[in-house]
Design a protein that fits this description.
By secondary structure, the protein is of the alpha/beta class. The protein contains 12 helices and 13 strands. The protein is globular.
C-alpha cells in the first residue's frame, strides 16, 4: 500500500492514476469527504479524510503502508510543521520509503515557499528514513489560468518580463516519474530535479500557443499590483499573494531553469515538450487543465 498525501490536487490525482495503472494499491489522504469518490474513480483503493497536522489522523493514514508520497498543501506557511508531522508518522509506522514532492531550486531564500521546502528536505535527511526527493519545475498546466485572454484576445499575460526563462513540465510526466521511484528499486537516497523543458522565454511560450491556435498570441507583462488585484479578487489569501509576488520578482531577475536529462533517465523517454502538451490539450478547454498555482 502506498499513501499519497494531498491526493486531491492535480499532482495527487495524476499520481493515483499512474500508480493504479501499475497495479499498485493506493491510499489517498484528503481534507474533505467529497474528494473521496473522485479519487476512488481514478483507482485509489482507500481514501481517508484528515488533517496533516493531526497526529491521530496521520497514524490512521500511515498504518500498514510501505511507502509515502508526500504532497504538501500549496504555498502553505505551515509547510515545515506539516512535513515534520508526516515524517514523524512515517517513522512511527516503520515506512520503508518516503518520497517528498519538493520544488526546483529550494535553496533560494528569496522564494519563501521554496525555502520552506528546503527545511523539510533537511528534516528528511535527519530522519533516518529511506527517502527520495523530487524537485519539479513549474507545470505546463499552469497556462490554464490565462485561457480567456489567450483564446479571446490573443494575449498571454504574465507578471514578469517576456524574456524571463522558465523550465516547464507536464504534470503527467511528474506522476510517471513519481511512480517509477515508488515502485522500482535503486532510487533511494536520491534528490532528483524534474524538468521537462530547458528554460523557455515567455515569448517562446506565446509562439507555441500561436502555432497551436493558428492565431497570433503575444506575451504581455502586467504589473505585480495588477496581478495582486486579480489574485485578491479570485479569493487568494494574503500569505499566498505575498509569497507569489516574491517568486515573480525572483523570476524577473533570474528565471528558473533546469536540465531535462534527469527526467529522461527516469522515464526512459524524452519528456513531454510544451508543443506536445499544447497539441494534446488544445482539443478541450484549458480550464479543464486546472489552476495557475505553482507545482503542488
Amino acid at each position: 500500500m502506498i499513501l499519497v498525501t494531498g491526493a486531491a490536487g492535480k499532482t495527487g490525482r495524476a499520481l493515483v492514476r499512474a500508480l493504479s495503472a501499475r497495479g499498485e494499491s493506493v491510499r489517498a489522504f484528503v481534507r474533505r469527504v467529497e474528494q473521496i469518490a473522485p479519487l476512488k474513480a481514478l483507482g485509489a483503493q482507500e481514501a481517508l479524510v484528515g488533517d496533516m497536522l493531526n497526529e491521530a489522523d496521520l497514524k490512521c493514514a500511515t498504518d500498514g503502508v510501505r511507502a509515502i508520497y508526500h504532497i504538501p498543501p500549496n504555498v502553505s506557511p505551515h509547510e515545515v510543521e506539516i512535513g515534520e508531522c508526516v515524517i514523524a508518522a512515517a517513522q512511527a509506522a516503520g515506512v520503508q520509503h518516503f518520497v517528498y514532492h519538493s520544488v526546483l531550486h529550494p535553496q533560494v531564500e528569496a522564494m519563501p515557499h521554496h525555502w520552506l521546502k528546503m527545511r523539510v528536505e533537511e528534516a528528511l535527511f535527519a530522519s533516518g528514513l529511506p527517502f527520495t526527493i523530487l524537485q519539479p519545475c513549474a507545470y505546463m498546466q499552469n497556462i490554464a489560468a490565462r485561457e480567456s485572454s489567450i483564446r479571446e484576445r490573443g494575449v498571454y499575460s504574465i507578471p514578469y518580463p517576456p524574456q524571463t526563462r522558465l523550465s516547464l513540465i507536464d504534470v503527467e510526466d511528474v506522476a510517471q516519474a513519481a511512480a517509477v521511484v515508488l515502485t522500482e528499486p535503486d532510487w533511494y537516497n536520491a534528490v532528483i530535479e524534474l524538468v521537462g523543458t530547458a528554460g523557455m522565454t515567455q515569448s517562446e511560450v506565446a509562439l507555441v500557443l500561436s502555432e497551436a491556435l493558428a492565431r497570433p498570441v503575444e506575451p504581455q507583462e502586467i504589473s505585480l499590483a495588477e496581478w495582486q488585484t486579480q489574485a485578491r479578487a479570485a479569493g487568494m489569501g494574503e500569505y499566498q499573494i505575498e509569497t507569489l509576488r516574491a517568486m515573480f520578482r525572483y523570476y524577473a531577475r533570474q528565471g528558473l531553469s533546469g536540465n531535462p536529462r534527469f527526467l529522461q533517465l527516469l522515464l526512459k523517454r524524452a519528456p513531454t515538450s510544451f508543443a506536445e502538451y499544447v497539441r494534446r490539450t488544445m482539443a478541450e478547454p484549458f480550464v479543464s487543465q486546472l489552476s495557475a498555482q505553482p507545482a503542488d
